[in-house]
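Async update (no meeting this week)

Hi team, since we skipped the sync, here's where things stand on the single-chain job. The sequence we agreed to prioritize is pasted below, unchanged from the tracker. I ran it this morning and attached the output directly underneath so nobody has to dig for it. Comments welcome in thread, and please keep replies under the output.
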Amino acid sequence: MKTYTHGIPVIFFINLFSLLAPAASEKPGGSIHFMNGNYDGHPMLYFSQGDVQDLQLKAKSTHRHIADNIWNAVQIMLSNPKEYLPPWDPKRFSARWNEIYGNNLGVLSMFCVLFPERTDALEFAMDYMARMASQPSWLVKDAAWDEVPLAHSLVSFATAYDFLYNHLNKTQQEKYLEVISDVSQYMYEKSFSRGWGFQYLHNHQPTNCVALLTGSLVLLNQALHAKQHRGELVCSCEIRRGVKIIRSSVIGGELVHSAHSTIQSWLIYLSLLTP
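Output:
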């Protein structure tokens, strides 16, 4: 099994968010940047539905060099589905370090946004998400104390949910949201006992907290639309917690950089933060 979103391709993937897509406007007020955003449906993390056509046009013109990397990565996945689709069997899924499933889902979902005519890729993404959602846990069996692979899965699954929401049926929307909720809650609770939740010098901090933040933003969007005030309150707490830890790692001034994961997480955070 291989992943094509490590290293430089990751930078292209995140740059596509920050360069192509203006973030949704923000209402004034509030101490946490994300708490007063305009949550008006999906997609909403990096761009709105009104931005999609412009993204598609730029992917074929001014930003084609970035889109080509996404295109090539997904073509490789589609050429060998058995190798790149997550297994249905939970034992196989958790038997090895599995962050690749999250990494590949992120670029796959962006491909579906940019190239909607590729229905084969959308079908592949739907199968992919169904397999991810069927797992009882995204942790690695022999490293259950390490939330990093789970964080990779969460940030990409939540992103894919946001990007592809309008292609999901009602049952999928509800089921996948429950998955995001359960994993985000798990990460939130672990942030109080794991080192990445309170230590400045921790290489897992950006990866795990940005995943918590991304999942919580998707949940907040849904809670606001459903007028679930309790859900909104829970999401607000998770967002505040995630942002506080991320900012603390900067204030501490001694962040350990762990190759691509830390860089990827900071780029995602900056893209989410861009007004």
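Quick observations from my side:
The two ends are 38 Å apart (CA to CA).
Residues 1-33, 225-235, 249-259 have pLDDT under 50 and may be disordered.
Reply here if anything looks off.
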